[in-house]
Amino acid sequence: MFNFDMEMCHNCAVFHDDSSDAMVIVISYDNKEFEVQYGTFDHSELLATLTPINDDDLNSWLDSMFNPFDEADLKLIEERLKELHLAVSVDIDDL
Questions:
Q1: Interval 1-58: pLDDT, tens
Q2: Quick one: pLDDT at residue 24?
Q3: Which of 25, 62, 80, 82 could form a disulfide with 4 if both were Cys (CB 3.0 to 4.6 A apart)?
């Protein structure tokens, strides 16, 4: 889970996930539009460009993007994705 506390007056911020090597990188060149990247130290990708109205709005957007579920929800989603991957693998192997 990420803890977002960015201020719009800052041009850059990096937030680390406590349980993995994942990070969210937020960059702004004009303090109006904020590019949001997600990845690791070695590689990240642009996910969105946000135009918040204030600090709370910026942090709320980031939180809803990266912390939409609690830990129990994440475990269920992970289990379901594994099941879907197995189903897809079986279908592909049967072709």
A1: 788 999 999 999 999 987 888 899 999 999 999 999 998 888 888 989 999 999 999 9
A2: 93
A3: 62
CB atoms near residue 24 (< 10 Å): 21
63, 72, 85 from 27: Cα distances, Å: 16, 31, 34
Would you give the distance in Å from CA 54 to the centre of its chain? 20
Query: Considering the domain boundaries, does residue 81 fall inside one?
Result: no
Is the C-alpha dihedral spanning 34, 31, 64, 18 positive or negative?
positive
pLDDT, residue 74, reads: 63
What is the DSSP secondary-structure string of 23-41? EEEEE-SSSSSEEEEEE-S
Q: In degrees, to the nearest 5, what angle opens at C-alpha 34 toward C-alphas 4 and 62?
A: 30
Decide: helix, strand or coil at residue 3.
coil
Domain encompassing residue 25: 12-68
Are 31 and 9 in contact, with CB atoms under 8 Å apart? yes
